[in-house]
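Batch manifest line 379
LIGAND: flavin-adenine dinucleotide
JOB: complex structure
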Amino acid sequence: VSALPSRAELDAVAARFFDVGKRLVAPSVVARDRAASFDRALWRALADAGLFRLEGVARRGQALEALVRGSLDLGLAVTACAHFVAIAVVEQHGSDEQKRAWLPKLEDGTWLAGCANAEPGAGTDLMGLKSRAREREGGFALSSRKWSVTNVGACDFALVSARLEGAPAREAMNIFGVETAGARRWMRLRSDLTGLRTSPTGSLLAWRAPLPPHALVGGRGAGVKLFRLMFSEERVTTGFLYLGALKACLERGVRHAEQRRQFGQPIGKNQYVQEKLVRMRVAAELLEAQLWRTLERMAAGDDVHASLSVVKVHGIEAAIDAAQDLVRLLGSLGVSVDEPAERLLRDLLGLSILGGTVELHKIVIYDETVRALSPTTPR
Ligand SMILES: Cc1cc2nc3c(=O)[nH]c(=O)nc-3n(C[C@H](O)[C@H](O)[C@H](O)COP(=O)(O)OP(=O)(O)OC[C@H]3O[C@@H](n4cnc5c(N)ncnc54)[C@H](O)[C@@H]3O)c2cc1C
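JOB STATUS: finished
ARTIFACT:
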């Protein structure tokens, strides 16, 4: 991450994508959520608004927070997060040939991209993945079964992790850039999800699928290094989604608390109601401070591995609490599908699993804490 943009520039990004979210995305979110459909035209409209030309994780995160607040569509924002992660990997580790071939289509929205790591037998323990690539004349043959992956139900391009057969252990894990329309590969949409239904989550099957030599990203054995980049980009950008959701809950909650009258006065006069809104405000401010502090430390080259896990644990738990409190605060309206509260809650449950579960992040935080405070304890 290079130096952070100025506050004025970030405010302008936020204003632009709040407006895009409100005007273009919000009007159809209820219908798309009900139908579990991903709208390609809307995706192109986001690209046309310049979303995928934004540079650096700070601008991207800021845009996504504002998009969520304007649209209340966490599914589409998750789709954009995964796409951004793929762009970041190609930008930072792609060869000149890969950048020339892939980046223009990723930036102008011609392509939708995903990052396919999870498999039926490898979720939290990603190193258990079984996908294999074999070197063959003219490139590689990929055999892979990726499961429950953002965008991999409709995407044109995916970064796919696989072990390279016959490679020494330190070169075994690799990432391949795969055009999904090629031979011997199939995608399937997951339609059973209760949350993030406006995002095309799905599976990818490849059976001895031929890949050209330039499909290998970052050189032989770059897999683990690229995992680290994918995880840190994903953790920052999803952190902004939790923040957008928290602020959206607070804004909707305050409006209702001031307008809805019971016992002859606005329900916001009631301290049990105020407490819910105050907790949302406190959680949002703390998350925002933590996110920007982490970005500053990333820009300075610090190791922020555990801090990103703090963002996840605090952010997702606070956002889920806020969405649940908003459901309650809205009374019977809170469980209406026309209100954002229950959709946000369902979407946030999906987000709590994507990008590593809360339990995984607690393991990271604990290990780093012990390392820092008790460096002599063998781990
Ligand atoms: C909506 C959605 C989008 C997704 N998008 C992507 C994507 O873009 N790319 C991708 O690669 N994957 C994606 N995933 C997959 C996601 O990364 C995995 O689902 C996640 O890592 C958990 O894996 P699992 O589902 O196999 O659960 P499991 O690994 O089977 O875990 C089940 C439970 O056991 C707990 N657990 C496991 N091990 C431990 C341990 N050592 N200590 C304590 N608790 C433990 C977990 O925290 C969890 O609560 C997505 C998933 C969802 C739901």
